[in-house]
Amino acid sequence: MYMFKYVTKRLGLMLFTFLIIFTMCFVLIKLLPIPTNVLPGQDPEIVMKTLEGRGWITNIREGENGVWEYDRVPILIQYGTYLKRIVTQGDFGIVTTYGEYLNMNIWQVFVDHLPPTILINIYSTLIGVPIGLGLGILAALKKNKWQDQVINIFIILLISVPSIVLALMLQYVFCFKLGWFPLMMSTSDDYFTWEVFHSMLPAVFALCLGSIAGYARYTRAELSEVLTGEFMLLARTKGLTKRQAIYRHAMRNSMVVIFPSILSEFVSVLSGSLIIEKMFGVNGVGGLYLNSITFQDYDFFMLLSGFYTLVSLTAGIVIDISYGFIDPRIRMGAK
Amino acid sequence: MENYNIDQIPAEKFRFAQKSDLLHDSKFETKPVTYFQGAFRRFSKNKGAVVGGIVISILILFAIIAPFFTPFKPAYYDMVYAYVTPKNNLFVNAGIDFWDGCRVKDTNRIGYLKDMALAAETGREIIKDGEYTVSPDGSNYTYRYDTYYGVGFGKYKIISPAEFEAIQEYQNRTGKQVLYPVVKFADRPTLEKNKYDANIYYKVENPNVSTLRPQLDADGNIIPNYWKYDVTEENNLIPEYNSLRIEGEDGIREDGKQYYYAYGRKVDGGIEVRAEYYEYYIYQHTEVKKDGIDEPLFLFGTTQTGKDIFACLAYGARFSFIFATVVAAVNFIVGVIWGSISGYFGGKVDLFMERFSEILGSVPTIIVITLLKYHMGSTSQVIVLFIAFFATGWIGMAGRTRMQFYRFKNQEYVLAARTLGASDARIMFKHIFPNGLGTIVTSVALVIPSMIYSETSFTYLGIINLEAGNTTSVGTLIAAGQQSIMANAGYVALFPCAFLVLLMLSFNLFGNGLRDAFNPSLRGSED
Question: What is the pTM of this model?
Answer without folding.
Answer: 0.83
